[in-house]
From TrEMBL:
Record GO biological process: blood coagulation; proteolysis
Active site: H264, D309, S417
Protein's UniProt name: Coagulation factor VII
CDD domains: EGF_CA (cd00054), Tryp_SPc (cd00190)
Domain EGF-like, first and last residues per copy: 39-75
Species name: Gambusia affinis (Western mosquitofish)
């Protein structure tokens, strides 16, 4: 049966397992497809009307309706007397009811994060929002701001901009994108807009043009289209090593004892991590080598689809916080969604290859990439060769998101797996994604795919508590 039938039966319409079996013919390929198909995001086409926002609730969708609309799909309007809405944020609702006038300030997390500096939670009955802060911060008297309570709080760079040149934030605060890379990849710059502001894809490309021999000798030109990170500029970056000392995957420090990485990395053996690492060949002054005590791979990780591609590493001893060793902040569920809106910019770091099948980097590199919509992400994975078997169709599940450019040569690549996708928000860096998979590296018409960290916050919390409790009892 032609691939076009698959498109008609299962994507334009909802198909049953029996219909899928007729298309794929064999039980193995049917079940592979059915697993991915069942995990599709029900919000891939927005069913909400009148400006409603679609949010996934397990296998169903939930519409967040704007004021004056209600119903499953925001299709019913409420009748109110003399109601005026000021559309400028914060949204103020004034209702005139004789003989008094009541003025209500309506704050919701989906509008400007409710005014909160970090975490935001909607109160029941539309009573406003409750702000909160990440670990190591306290909520100020204004009930919105967060200030550090420890010397090295999560998500805060300490010395990169002052001592070692440009930091991650420099990638995101300037208006234009320019790249100038010399032959050694050292004098490269990249300027972009603030991470949480929408922007258009740039057509800038790296000036690197080298032979295979030059590529082997020049360790500094790796992450595709990226440039050198500052020493200490990504203090949450971790390198995962085998017992022979070779580094093969990235990770993100999220507390003194815990590292977040990709599950597919641990089909290989892992022995220890290095924190505060910049140069893979020579030890750095503040580098910490720490044994991995336990690896916890998500129980639903699927090695074929890369769904639930997340793992937690419990370190044998705590990492010592310092200028080059600071955890990234974990978001709360709302902030994780808020920071993965389309066109939000995030930064990816790692020692991966500069091109498909290229060698890894000696020095830590970085690249900034915009989040793309589910529709664009899904379309980029569709088969272009009609002769390819339907079983090769790679589906983007709700546990994934895409980032990058279709044309510009900028992407994560082999060796970056497990590393961070971090987003800067109001002075703090939050971990929102994990480098997971891609079709080659920076290939034309393809995006990089990342694990959506916000879907696993509950599992992360429960796993950490369980492992630490067991360690205390043992």
């Amino acid at each position: 049966m032609l691939p076009g039938n698959l498109e008609r039966e299962c994507y334009e319409e909802r198909c049953s397992r029996e219909e899928a079996a007729e298309i794929f013919q064999t039980q193995e390929t049917t079940m592979e497809f059915w697993y991915r198909y069942q995990n599709l995001n029900p919000c891939r086409t927005n069913p909400c009307l009148n400006g409603g926002i679609c949010s996934q609730d397990r296998e169903e969708f939930l519409c967040l309706c704007p004021p004056r609309f209600r119903g499953k799909t925001c299709d019913s309007g409420e009748k109110r007397a003399a109601t005026r809405i000021n559309t400028c944020w914060p949204r103020r609702l004034t209702t005139h009811l004789p003989p008094v006038s009541v003025r209500l300030e309506v704050l919701e997390c989906r509008y400007g994060n409710g005014g909160c500096l970090q975490y935001c939670q909607d109160l029941p009955g539309g009573a406003g929002v409750q702000c909160g802060c990440a670990e190591g911060f306290k909520l100020e008297a204004d009930k919105k701001s967060c200030t550090p309570t420890v010397e090295f709080p999560c998500g805060r760079q300490q010395m990169a901009a002052l001592l070692y040149g440009r930091s991650l934030l420099d990638l995101l605060e300037d208006a234009d994108v320019t790249m100038a890379t010399d032959q050694n990849g050292i004098n490269s710059e990249i300027h972009e807009q603030n991470s949480t502001e929408p922007s258009e894809a740039t057509n800038s490309t790296s000036g690197v043009n080298q032979t295979e021999g030059q590529m082997e000798e020049n360790y500094s030109t790796r992450i595709v289209g990226g440039n050198l990170e500052s020493r200490g500029g990504s203090p949450w970056q971790v390198l995962v090593h085998r017992s022979d000392g070779s580094g093969f995957c990235g990770g993100t420090l999220v507390s003194e004892r815990w590292v977040v990485s990709a599950a597919h990395c641990f089909e290989d053996s892992a022995d220890h991590v290095t924190v505060g690492n910049y140069d893979k060949i020579r030890p750095d002054p503040d580098e910490q080598k720490i044994k991995i005590q336990q690896i916890v791979v998500h129980p639903h990780f699927h090695s074929y689809t890369f769904d639930s591609d997340i793992a937690l590493l419990y370190l044998a001893r705590p990492a010592l916080r310092g200028p080059t060793a600071v955890p990234a902040c974990l978001p709360d569920p709302h902030l994780s969604r808020y920071l993965l809106r389309e066109d939000t910019r995030g930064v990816v770091t790692g020692w991966g290859a500069t091109r498909y099948l290229g060698s890894s980097s000696r020095f830590l590199r970085k690249v900034t990439l915009p989040v793309v919509s589910y529709q664009a992400c899904s379309a980029s994975t569709e088969q272009s060769d009609p002769s390819s078997p339907p079983s090769l169709l790679q589906v983007i599940t709700d546990n994934m998101f895409c980032a990058g450019y279709l044309e510009t040569n900028m992407d994560a690549c082999s060796g970056d797996s497990g590393g961070p996708f971090v987003v800067h928000y109001r002075g703090t860096w939050f971990l929102t994604g994990i480098v997971s998979w891609g079709e080659e590296c920076a290939a034309r018409g393809k995006y990089g795919v990342y694990t959506r960290l916000g879907n696993f916050l509950g599992w992360i919390r429960d796993t950490m508590q369980r492992v630490e409790r067991n360690q205390t009892l043992s």
